[in-house]
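Researcher: I'd like a structural prediction for the single chain below. Treat it as a standalone chain; there are no partners to consider.
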Amino acid sequence: MDRPAGNGSHRSDSMTIRVYTEDNLTPETWMRDAACATTNPELWFPLHGDKPTADEAKRICRETCPVQAQCLEFALRTGQSTGIWAGYSAKSLQAIRRRSAA
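Model: Treating it as a single chain, here is the predicted structure.
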């Protein structure tokens, strides 16, 4: 059964699902739920383009992260130029920004 749990959350019998709105969509709110929040930061910022590390970070994002959409919006809005964000490399994010601007 789904019932409000306060602070923009809904509680079901098995899990809490946060509902993000414009009022609570800040990095502080969604980042705590990100898959990367409990992993080694070096995974998300691979040194010298370490492809196996970057591929693992992208896989974790795409397969397990419940806030991938919020992360992508944040990365695009703030112009992140390093690291893996929402399963995309900095180069991929740059290409998305260019296409959006066109």
